Amino acid sequence: MTSNGAVLEVQDLHVAVEGKQILNGLSLTVPAGEVHAIMGPNGSGKSTLANTLMGHPRYDVTGGQIFLKGENVTEMAPDERAKRGMFLAMQYPTSIPGVTMVNFLRASLKAVQGTDVPVREFRQRLLDAMAVLKMDEAFARRYVNEGFSGGEKKRAEILQMSLLRPAMAVMDETDSGLDIDALRTVSDGINTLRNPEMGILLITHYQRMLNYVQPDHVHVLYKGRIVRSGSRELASELEAKGYDWITNEIDAQTGADGASATEGN
User: Fold this and answer.
1) Residue 67 — φ and ψ, nearest 5°?
2) Tens-place pLDDT, residues 57-75
3) If you ran DSSP here, which 8-state letter would residue 210 be given?
4) pTM score of the predicted model
């Protein structure tokens, strides 16, 4: 059973990769219209969470459940999750030589919606989205991510998000590899797409993106659990102090294995 108004609800999630346990009882609720930031030190399980939410087959759910708009999607394939409104902006987007952005985007939209979008309507939606992201029209004729800079790859991810209009957007370190101008452009795109029906899970290692995309809640992930939650001021505190002040406290409370770590305020 899920909470009222939750677009995403993760209940006591345990995940293993190649036999190694990474997530250890993670629980999280993202209501419609809210942006939740996930922060944490390297190796805490941030990208594991993102890939598991999207249904990557390498990530083995050994316990717990994932609900999207009240529906249990834990066992669903990635394409089924996408059709129901799940979207993942990848940390390292893949290049697809020989496939143009325009063809890729139209095929993606058809796959998610189940029907073709009329050419004129699709073109207008594409041009409108590209204008928001300050992208030249020639961008749509390039091969997917081939020869793209880091900023171009991330803008391409936000462009997909704009066209697909997901219910739940999971953004895995979208700020990775961006210079300040690209970060502002991508952040502007995310802020433009925020709406009362969509939830956003913004996974990041640093606070800098949260200067532009202000989260409703910030969660600290450590050893596969959410160990601290708070307002956006928590991100500023992490930027100033680092993670040790939290991780040392958790380790002292639970022992080196962190077996009893629980979410805190």
Assistant:
1) -115, 135
2) 999 999 999 999 999 999 9
3) G
4) 0.89
